[in-house]
Every structure is written in structure tokens, then in C-alpha cells.
């Protein structure tokens, strides 16, 4: 009885959602071209970036990017808070074991030879690639976020693969880079206010060949912020050293 | 044209039914990801209907796709990832507290504790 | 500074101080950390409020100030528009965040991450109030949502994690539908800017109009979900009652109302959207009544308060819906909207006060059951309180929510019911206020002296009652009283911000008419009768039945689907 009632409920929910979604998904209205044409004409002169996606998400719609960086910051703070509280609690109360026991963590028992070899060799290369994607985001596909995620995965590779503890996999150091780059990001975003360009305005005069530097700068900061914070979270989830 | 959209719709529906119907909370989180990805695909697919080339201006690039949906989806993807991370951390917390990943068991055990 | 930089200050100043706090936390020793937090709250919360209030004359004269972020062309950039409602929302957020933060210093979770989260949340609220761009609204709503999930999850028990998880799953999947709605509108109009969307929607015809309607529906319902109107309110009780007390105060004081008033701009996109306002206002009236009945049936003190939040949101939504139905620019519409906001503001104050005092009291005794918990004052004295300020402040809150003069609740509720006179809503809301009185008599009983000797949790050492908690209580209680005493000025302030026309004044002669006083007396009397019925044997049985009805995870989505389906049916 309970089961049928449950199935009935699920079917009802899916039916309503289907009816609400279908008209929008199946709409045959042609895609608007106005903003594409405008961007094709003006994006390069407005922001200096060849990659139009970069010029939108760090130029025209930089506010969205700021919002998403904040979402990332908040959710990682929350995730770390939950995980660290768990670590504290498990000493006191009898909890179900989820990650490896602390005595196993130090020796990294989950590491096999294959993983070690592949991850430790791959790590530096991926790190380099991440910085490339980050720095060249304004002229090629990529940007701060993508580069940052690649950097984060490189750090995870290094954390998995190397026995020695380097600064790069130390969560305290990573956390410091993260907060520093966040502070710099907000200061850069606000700097336009003092240059009479408004919030998130490019303080460098637009149209000049230097104006693209603003986007490069934002790409680097966001890349560092995203890379370090995701790396910190992954290392914490792997049961590594808590520095927060 | 239409068949692609129907496929995307089915993807979204699979995701949503996992959120609503699946018992396992990890599966629910996956469902949320699927639902999110379906909408992201829809944006990218429809935005690319008006052009052929990647929106990177350069020599000989004339017929670019609409870059706006791509930039928007960049944001949406990151937000999706963040929410997923948070949901998974909460799932770990729930699992440690109740020893189960089934939503009904979790809710029953938590309420009997009170 | 130009006025553009000035009105964006509630967005970037909190962010700047949040970043500063996090930076100092990871680099500097503990002693500086605390100073940084106080400084951060000062710069991030108080300073922007003062700066924004300076814009009051400009807003009153021009209606709004507008800017494109980064100074790009209007049709491609993100537009932020600062109007009276934005100012009011910033004021609301700061007025509740400050006492909640003060309270959290000693009662938890008062660490520096919490302060940074509060500041980020305030920035997101300011951004929601100002954004005139659909996708940016999505980002800001998600930001506000994520901070809410994290704040709820800071609760110590695993219950809080469950509440946060269900709210997260429901709200995030609803926001995906918001994204789909944005897709539909962008596809149709080629813009994300409100004005361009509104213009684009006017020229549509035939099938495309349907698409537009469904897109709007997919945008409106997820936002209403955050507001917790009745079929969408199932997530609220767990989230609000399991969170830490300071967070509960914020959630029900601020986070419920901000999306509602931000929706006004979406509703003005097309005449179709404003036709949806009427059924929503009816849903609000029903919410007010059902919410209070459920509140009366609760045995857990914080759950009782959480159901009251639902009920009071019903008041706010019914006035809000009728305001949009009449048109915000019309005389009646702007009066209704002012009444709605005034009640939202008073509700934020007294509900925050109630959550904080009840939270402190129940913590002191280690008991949250209103049927068994007696002698709350003894329990408070046990943790070091000398003067029964907590009880006094709780009484201020209880009298405010029961709409007794001279507190703010009386004025705001009277204004709301006055504006709704003659409609079906009026009956519902009057009945609901009877229930409110009854349930607060029930809740106040915890302060009665206990007959049996109490078993109090042992206190390790003779600690003093934290001054910060008292400060937070007194701050909120005094503001309840002040808004009540200066209600005339307050209403004038709100109406002037909402409509540019010459506003009518509502002085004491308007509130203290014979009718109103008789009505208040009758409400209190029937509240006492209802309470007597509720504690009688059959009453207890019925209430127990009501209390047992709690929904599971799927029911959250059932509520969502019902709301979506009902509005779609209405539209069709």
C-alpha cells in the first residue's frame, strides 16, 4: 500500500514536471542573433580579449563570475566545516568508519604502485598545462576556472603520488593562497570604483592594447582561487592533513 | 532538431526521477547532476544553431556560434559542482550519524533519536 | 563618490570585509582575528547602510538609479537598478543580521567563517534586491541558497544535516527549472535584461506566447519555493527548527522575504505574470490559517515558531499578491505593498527576537517540549541570568506577534488587514490571528514556575550570563517597541520609497479607532477560548493527530509539483 502510494506520487510529480518543461524545451523559436552580432563586432575593442566567452564572463558579465566564485567559496567553506567537524566528533562518539583509519592515512595504504607511478609523473605536467590554460584564457579556449580545475587535479595527483610532503599539498599553504587570491580578486573588482569606472570596471583605459591585461589578471586570480580551494577540498575528502 | 531536444528532455527526466524516486542519497545527488547537465546541454546546443565556428575571434572567423549561452553555462556548471560538493559532504555526515545511505532509514533513525 | 558607486556599496563592502576576515584568519594570530571581525561587521554591514540611506532623497525624486556593471553597453552588460525596494531590503537584512551576529558571538556558531558567511549573504541579498538581469538573479539566488544550506548545516546535530540536505536537493533542483525558464525567455527575446524581455514578450504571438508563459512559470515557482507559500513550505519547518538559533532568526527574518520582494520585478515582465498574483495571494491567505493551526499542534518550541513563520508569510504574501494584482503603481497597489513590507519588517524583528530568546531558554534547560517544560526562569538563573530580561524580551516578541499595542506587530497587522478589508483574505487572516494568540499562550507557559522540582543540567562552573545575548535581545525588543511607537514615520518612510506619489499618513487616530480596539480585544478573548479548547482532552487528541503528519522527502517534491501544476492549470 505504502509502495503504491509512493509510486503514484513519483509518477504524478514527473507528469507535472514533464508538462511544464516540454513546451519550453520543444519551442521552435529561432535562436536570437542580436547579441552574437554585437559581440562579433565589439567584443575585441571593448575588452581586448580574442576569446569572446572570456570577454563575456570576465568583462560584460563579470558580476556572474564573482557570484560563482562566492558560491564556490561558501560551499567549500561549508564542506570543509562539515568534514572537519566529523573528524573531531569521530574521536568522541562511536561513528561508522567512512574514510581510512588515521593510522593508515600516514602511510597512504590506498596507494598502489600503478597509481603512484602514474600520478606522480603526471602531476607536474598537468600543473604546467593548468597554468597554460589559465594564462592563455583570453586568446584560446580556457580561462581561470578551467585552468584552476586542472591545477587542482594536478595537486590531487601530487598528493596521491608522492610520499614526501611538499608545500604544494599542504592544506595550510593552499588555504593561504586561496584567501589571498580571494582578497586580491575583490580588491581588483572594487578598484574600478576609485578609477571612476564603477564596480568591476576595467581600470585600464579601454581600447588601448593594455586593456586585455585586466582579463589576464582576473584569469590568474580566479585560477589560483579555484585551483587551491578545490584542491584543499579534495585533499580533505581524501582524509589528508587538515590545515583549516 | 527535435530528436535532440527530446533526448535532452529524457536526460533531464531521468535525473529528476532519480532525485524524487531513488532511495539512495548518493543517487539523488547524481540525479541533480544529470538534471543540471541536461539543461547545460540544451543551452549549448541551441546556442550553437546560429553559427559554425568557435567564438574565438581571429583571421577568417566569420560565422561564430552565440557565445552568451556558453559563458552563462560556465557559471551554471560551477554552481552545480559546488552544490554537488556540499550535498556529498552532507551525505557523508548523514552516513556517519546513521550508518545508512537510504533516505527513509536516515529519516526514521534521526526521528527516533529525538 | 558617484551615486552609482554609492548604491553598489552594499554589494562590494561586505565582500571586501569578508575577504579581509578570511585573509586575516589564515595569516594572523587570534587576537587580531577578533578585531578584524568587529571591524568587518562595521565596514560590511553598518557602513553600506549609512551610505545607502544617503540616497533616500534621490530615490524618492527619481524613482530609481541604474548602472551597468563595468560600464559596458546596456543591452549586453548586467544592469543593477537601485530603487526603494532595494533600499528597504538592505535595511531589513542589516537590521536582523546585526543582532543575530551579536547573539552568535557567545551562543555559537560564532567563529570567523560564520561572520564571513553572514557578510557574503548580505552582499547576495543586496544584489538580489538590485539585479535587473535574469541570469544574475539566478546566480545571486544560488549564492543566497548555498549560504543558507551551509548555515543550516552548522547545527551540531545530524538532524541539521538532514534538514540542510533536503532543502538543498529541493531548492537546487528547483533552481535548475529556473535556469530552464531563463533559457525559454532568452530564446524568445534574445536578452536577459528585464526591460528588453518585457518588450520582447509583448510582440509574441501564437504558440510562442505559450512558451513564454511556461518559462515565466518555471521562473516564478522556484523563487516562491524560497518564500515557502503553502504547498511549497514543507522544507521550512525542519530547516528553521534544526538550525542554530542565530541562523533560524536570519532564515525566517530575512531569507524568506527577500526573494518575495525581488519577484516584483519578474511579475512586471508581462501581464500574464501579474495575473498569477491573485491565486498566489489566495494561497497566502490559506497558508496563514493552516500554518497557525499546525503551529498550535506542535510540541517542540522551535517547530512551533517555524510554523508561525509560515503563517506570517501567508499574511505578507496575501497582501503582496493583491498589490501586484492591483498593479504596483496604482494607489491601492502601493498601499498594499507598503503594508506587506511593513509586516515583513515587523515579522523579521519579532520572529528573530522569539527565536533567539526561546533558543537561549530551551538550551539552558535542555528541553524543547512545550508540554513538559516549565520554570524557564529557574533554568535561566541556573546558567547565570540575574535579571529576567530574557523573559521580558520574549514577552515583547509574543505580544508583538499577537498584535497587541504598542508593539510593531499591532500596527503592521492592522495595516495589512485594513488594506484587505472586504476580501476573502480578511476572514482567513482574522481567524489566523486568533490562532496566533492561542499558540503564544501555549508557548508562554514555559515561563510559568515549575510545580515539580526541576532536573537542570549541571553547570560546570558558575559562569556569567553572556552580555552579548542580552544585548541582542534588548536591541531587538527595543526596535520592536520603537517601530511600534514611531509607526507613523515608519509607514511614511516605506510608502515614500515604494511609490512616488504623495503618501497618506497613518497616525494613531487611524490605528486606535473603536473598531480596531474591539477587534483586538475580541481576537485576544477568542484566542484564550481557542487555547482552552486546545488543552482540553478532545482538542489535544486532534492536535496530536495534526502533529503526527510529517512529510517525507518525496513530499517536498510533491508540494513543488502541486504548486507548479496548479499555477499551470490556472494559467491555462
Automatic annotation (TrEMBL), chain A:
Main localisation: membrane
Domain Na+/H+ antiporter MnhB subunit-related protein: 115-230
Domain of life according to the entry: Bacteria
Entry's transmembrane regions: 69-87, 114-137, 143-161, 173-195, 215-238
Pfam family, one: MnhB
Membrane disposition: Multi-pass membrane protein
Subcellular location: Cell membrane
GO cellular-component term (any): plasma membrane
Keyword Transmembrane helix recorded: yes
Keywords recorded for this protein, A-Z: Cell membrane, Membrane, Transmembrane, Transmembrane helix
Family: Belongs to the CPA3 antiporters (TC 2.A.63) subunit B family.
Name of this chain's protein: Na+/H+ antiporter MnhB subunit-related protein domain-containing protein
Species: Sphaerochaeta halotolerans
TrEMBL record, chain B:
Residue spans crossing the bilayer: 71-92
Primary location recorded for the protein, binned into one broad class: membrane
Coiled coil feature spans: none
Cellular component terms (Gene Ontology): plasma membrane
Key words, A-Z: Cell membrane, Membrane, Transmembrane, Transmembrane helix
Keyword Transmembrane helix in record: yes
Topology with respect to the bilayer: Multi-pass membrane protein
Family annotation (InterPro entries): CPA3_antiporter_subunitC, NUOK/Mnh_C1-like
Localization: Cell membrane
PANTHER family: ANTIPORTER SUBUNIT MNHC2-RELATED (PTHR34583:SF2)
Stated family: Belongs to the CPA3 antiporters (TC 2.A.63) subunit C family.
Protein name: Na+/H+ antiporter subunit C
UniProtKB/TrEMBL annotation, chain C:
Gene Ontology biological process terms, A to Z: ATP synthesis coupled electron transport
Pfam families per the UniProt record, alphabetical: Proton_antipo_M (PF00361)
UniProt subcellular location: Cell membrane; Membrane
Family: Belongs to the CPA3 antiporters (TC 2.A.63) subunit D family.
Annotated keywords: Cell membrane, Membrane, Transmembrane, Transmembrane helix
Membrane topology category: Multi-pass membrane protein
Record domain NADH:quinone oxidoreductase/Mrp antiporter transmembrane: where: 131-437
InterPro entries according to UniProt: CPA3_Na-H_Antiporter_D, NADH_UbQ_OxRdtase, ND/Mrp_TM
Name of the featured protein: NADH:quinone oxidoreductase/Mrp antiporter transmembrane domain-containing protein
Lineage summary: Bacteria, Pseudomonadati, Spirochaetota, Spirochaetia, Spirochaetales
Chain ranges passing through the membrane: 6-24, 36-58, 78-103, 110-128, 134-153, 165-186, 210-237, 249-270, 276-297, 387-404, 424-444, 465-486, 517-535, 556-571
PANTHER family: NA(+)_H(+) ANTIPORTER SUBUNIT D1 (PTHR42703:SF1), NADH DEHYDROGENASE (PTHR42703)
Domain of life: Bacteria
UniProt-recorded Gene Ontology molecular function terms: NADH dehydrogenase (ubiquinone) activity
Amino acid at each position: 500500500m505504502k509502495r503504491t502510494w509512493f509510486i503514484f506520487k513519483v509518477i504524478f510529480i514527473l507528469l507535472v514536471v514533464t508538462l511544464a518543461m516540454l513546451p519550453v524545451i520543444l519551442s521552435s523559436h529561432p535562436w536570437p542573433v542580436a547579441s552574437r552580432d554585437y559581440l562579433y563586432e565589439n567584443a575585441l575593442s571593448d575588452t581586448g580579449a580574442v576569446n569572446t566567452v572570456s570577454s563575456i564572463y570576465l568583462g560584460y558579465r563579470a558580476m556572474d563570475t564573482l557570484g560563482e566564485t562566492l558560491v564556490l567559496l561558501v560551499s567549500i567553506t561549508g564542506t570543509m566545516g562539515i568534514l572537519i567537524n566529523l573528524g573531531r566528533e569521530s574521536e568522541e562518539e562511536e561513528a561508522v568508519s567512512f574514510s581510512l583509519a588515521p593510522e593508515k592515512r600516514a602511510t597512504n595504504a590506498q596507494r598502489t604502485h600503478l597509481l603512484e607511478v602514474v600520478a606522480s609523473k603526471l602531476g607536474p605536467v598537468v600543473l604546467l598545462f593548468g597554468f597554460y590554460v589559465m594564462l592563455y584564457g583570453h586568446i584560446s579556449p580556457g580561462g581561470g576556472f578551467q585552468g584552476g580545475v586542472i591545477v587542482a587535479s594536478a595537486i590531487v595527483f601530487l598528493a596521491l603520488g608522492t610520499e614526501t610532503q611538499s608545500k604544494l599539498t599542504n592544506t595550510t599553504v593552499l588555504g593561504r593562497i586561496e584567501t589571498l587570491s580571494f582578497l586580491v580578486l575583490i580588491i581588483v573588482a572594487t578598484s574600478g570604483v576609485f578609477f571612476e569606472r564603477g564596480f568591476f570596471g576595467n581600470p585600464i583605459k579601454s581600447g588601448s592594447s593594455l586593456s586585455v591585461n585586466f582579463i589576464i589578471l582576473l584569469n590568474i586570480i580566479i585560477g589560483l582561487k579555484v585551483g587551491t580551494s578545490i584542491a584543499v577540498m579534495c585533499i580533505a575528502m581524501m582524509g589528508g592533513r587538515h590545515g583549516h | 532538431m527535435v530528436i535532440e531536444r527530446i533526448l535532452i528532455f529524457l536526460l533531464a527526466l531521468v535525473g529528476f526521477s532519480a532525485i524524487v524516486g531513488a532511495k539512495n542519497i548518493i543517487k539523488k545527488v547524481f540525479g541533480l547532476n544529470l538534471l543540471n547537465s541536461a539543461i547545460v546541454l540544451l543551452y549549448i546546443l541551441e546556442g550553437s544553431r546560429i553559427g559554425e565556428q568557435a567564438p574565438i575571434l581571429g583571421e577568417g572567423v566569420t560565422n561564430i556560434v552565440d557565445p552568451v549561452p556558453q559563458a552563462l553555462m560556465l557559471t551554471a556548471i560551477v554552481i552545480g559542482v559546488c552544490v554537488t560538493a556540499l550535498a556529498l559532504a552532507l551525505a557523508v555526515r548523514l552516513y556517519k550519524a546513521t550508518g545508512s545511505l537510504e533516505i527513509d532509514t536516515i529519516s526514521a533513525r534521526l526521528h527516533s533519536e529525538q | 563618490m558617484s551615486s552609482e558607486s554609492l548604491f553598489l556599496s552594499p554589494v562590494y563592502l561586505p565582500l571586501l570585509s569578508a575577504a579581509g576576515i578570511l585573509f586575516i584568519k589564515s595569516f594572523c594570530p587570534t587576537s587580531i582575528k577578533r578585531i578584524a571581525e568587529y571591524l568587518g561587521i562595521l565596514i560590511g554591514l553598518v557602513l553600506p547602510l549609512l551610505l545607502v540611506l544617503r540616497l533616500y532623497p534621490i530615490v524618492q525624486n527619481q524613482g530609481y538609479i541604474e548602472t551597468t556593471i563595468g560600464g559596458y553597453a546596456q543591452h549586453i552588460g548586467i544592469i543593477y537598478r537601485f530603487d526603494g525596494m532595494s533600499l528597504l531590503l538592505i535595511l531589513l537584512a542589516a537590521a536582523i543580521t546585526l543582532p543575530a551576529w551579536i547573539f552568535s558571538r557567545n551562543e555559537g556558531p560564532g567563529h570567523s567563517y560564520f561572520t564571513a558567511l553572514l557578510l557574503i549573504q548580505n552582499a547576495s541579498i543586496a544584489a538580489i534586491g538590485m539585479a535587473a538581469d535574469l541570469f544574475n538573479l539566478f546566480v545571486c539566488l544560488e549564492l543566497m541558497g548555498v549560504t543558507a544550506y551551509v548555515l543550516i548545516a552548522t547545527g551540531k546535530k545530524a538532524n541539521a544535516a538532514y534538514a540542510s540536505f533536503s532543502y538543498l536537493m529541493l531548492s537546487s533542483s528547483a533552481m535548475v527549472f529556473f535556469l530552464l525558464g531563463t533559457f525559454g525567455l532568452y530564446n524568445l527575446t534574445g536578452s536577459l535584461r528585464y526591460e528588453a524581455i518585457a518588450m520582447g514578450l509583448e510582440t509574441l504571438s501564437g504558440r510562442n506566447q505559450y512558451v513564454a508563459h511556461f518559462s515565466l512559470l518555471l521562473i516564478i515557482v522556484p523563487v516562491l519555493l524560497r518564500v515557502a507559500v503553502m504547498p511549497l513550505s514543507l522544507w521550512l519547518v525542519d530547516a528553521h527548527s534544526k538550525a542554530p538559533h542565530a541562523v533560524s532568526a536570519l532564515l525566517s527574518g530575512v531569507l524568506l522575504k527577500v526573494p518575495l520582494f525581488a519577484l516584483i520585478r519578474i511579475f512586471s515582465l508581462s501581464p500574464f505574470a501579474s495575473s498569477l498574483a491573485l491565486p498566489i495571494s489566495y494561497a497566502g491567505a490559506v497558508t496563514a490559517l493552516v500554518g497557525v493551526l499546525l503551529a498550535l499542534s506542535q510540541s517542540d518550541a522551535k517547530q512551533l515558531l517555524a510554523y508561525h513563520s509560515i503563517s506570517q508569510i501567508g499574511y505578507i504574501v496575501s497582501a503582496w499578491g493583491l498589490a501586484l494584482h492591483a498593479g504596483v503603481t496604482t494607489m491601492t497597489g502601493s498601499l498594499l505593498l507598503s503594508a506587506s513590507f511593513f509586516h515583513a519588517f515587523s515579522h523579521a524583528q519579532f520572529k528573530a527576537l522569539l527565536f533567539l530568546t526561546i533558543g537561549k531558554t530551551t538550551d539552558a534547560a535542555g528541553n524543547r517540549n512545550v508540554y513538559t517544560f516549565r520554570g524557564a526562569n529557574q533554568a535561566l538563573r541556573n546558567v547565570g541570568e540575574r535579571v529576567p530580561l530574557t523573559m521580558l524580551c520574549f514577552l515583547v516578541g509574543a505580544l508583538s506577534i499577537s498584535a497587541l499595542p504598542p508593539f510593531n506587530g499591532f500596527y503592521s497587522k492592522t495595516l495589512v488587514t485594513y488594506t484587505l478589508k472586504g476580501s476573502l483574505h480578511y476572514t482567513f487572516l482574522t481567524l489566523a490571528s486568533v490562532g496566533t494568540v492561542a499558540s503564544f499562550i501555549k508557548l508562554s507557559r514555559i515561563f510559568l514556575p515549575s510545580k515539580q522540582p526541576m532536573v537542570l543540567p549541571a553547570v560546570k562552573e558558575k559562569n556569567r550570563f553572556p552580555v552579548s545575548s542580552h544585548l541582542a535581545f534588548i536591541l531587538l525588543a527595543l526596535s520592536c517597541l520603537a517601530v511600534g511607537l514611531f509607526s507613523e514615520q515608519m509607514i511614511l518612510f516605506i510608502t515614500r520609497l515604494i511609490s512616488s506619489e504623495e503618501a497618506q499618513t497613518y497616525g494613531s487616530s487611524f490605528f486606535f479607532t473603536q473598531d480596531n480596539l474591539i477587534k483586538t480585544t475580541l481576537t485576544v478573548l477568542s484566542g484564550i477560548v481557542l487555547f482552552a479548547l486546545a488543552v482540553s482532552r478532545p482538542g489535544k487528541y486532534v492536535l496530536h493527530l495534526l502533529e503526527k503528519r510529517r512529510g517525507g522527502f518525496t513530499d517536498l517534491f510533491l508540494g513543488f509539483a502541486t504548486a507548479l501544476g496548479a499555477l499551470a492549470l490556472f494559467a491555462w
